[in-house]
Amino acid sequence: MLMTSIDYRQAVKEDVSQLQELLDYFAENGLILQRKDVEQNYESFWVAHDGEQVVGCCGQRIYENGSQKAEICSLCVREEYQGHGIGSALVGNVLADLETNPDVELIFAFTRAGPMLEKLGFEMTKRERFPEKIMAFCNECPHYSNCDEQAWEYVL
Fold it and tell me: Is there a domain that residue 1 lies in?
């Protein structure tokens, strides 16, 4: 792989096809939950581009139930691009967005990428602190009863 300069930006309509393809690949391999809402919610994603190719993405979900919580979700980086800081940069961009939202006081993620989040200022916590996530999404997960993801939080 010849990696040129990686560009980061919020996803635009033209990214939807490649974004969905990337998310589908990671979901089919059991690494993330399936996303069927990309067409409607593409603006909630940041993408990493190598030329015209989407090589990574990271989404955000704001819980509008009065909890003042937001989730970093659907972090994916093509395998051949992993280990170059792309995931950290994507999370950093989503964090910067969420930090400007006055309705968000706490950001969390359920992930296997804990060491990366720890470097970005997240702290490990208990999954039970986020019932809105568990009720809305975890119940659909095939790994629900044997989840190996850890919960991480970032307090603003």
Answer: no
